[in-house]
Each structure stands twice: as C-alpha cells, then as structure tokens.
Amino acid sequence: MEAGLDISPQTVRKILAEDGIYRRKATEKPHLTDEHKARRLGFCHRYREQDWRTVVFTDETYFETGSLRMRRAKGVLRRAGEAYIPRKINCKFGTGSTIMFWGAILYAHSGAVTGVYGHRDYGAKEYN
C-alpha cells in the first residue's frame, strides 16, 4: 500500500465503521456555482412581493438510463448527516442517455406533463 501499512481492506472498513463512516449512495443534485446561488437569492429578494397567483410555474426532470453497475460505482464514504456536503455529492447529467419530462401549473390549475426524448432541435419525440 502507498502508506507502507500492511492492513487488509476489511480492517480499514471496520475502523471506518467504528467512526460511523460507511459507503453510501452519493447525493445527486445539479451543480450550483456561487454565482448561481447569488442570482437565485437576488431573484427571491426582487420578487418577494409578487402576486404568484398570476404566474405560470414550469418544471422539468430528467431520468437517466445506464447500467446498475455504473450507478453503484458512484458511492462515497460519509457519515450519516453528511449527504449535502459539497465534496460528497455527485453532480447529475455527466454522461448517458436521458429523457426529460416537462410540466406547468398555474394557481388552482394544473397542466399536462410532456415527455421529451432526444433533443428538440434534432427531432425529439414528445409523449403526452
């Protein structure tokens, strides 16, 4: 081993477990830079008096395809309660195929959800 220690992986796992550190699935979230965070906070301050009943909200979500082995390989070592420490988070959408679902809502109303596979500019298929 690099540190020059004669120690088995099982011993390392045992020592980490005694300190509450286990291999866990990394929390996934979109990458937000400090600029993104500052702009979001600025938006909140600018529009806190907005009558949100007159606004249409839209949202989208992505589902990634890929092998189970690839998803399992992204684990991190962390303690319980450390899920949102930046260095313990995997950013989403690195590689692989995705399908996007998009929807909209208005005060007291809801809209249809649309699924989009591919890229709109290159012949994406929509599913309603």
Automatic annotation (TrEMBL):
InterPro entries: RNaseH_sf (IPR036397), Transposase_Tc1-like (IPR002492). Residues 3-48 form the Transposase Tc1-like domain. Coiled coil: none annotated. GO terms for molecular function: DNA binding. GO terms for biological process: DNA integration; DNA transposition. This is Transposase Tc1-like domain-containing protein.
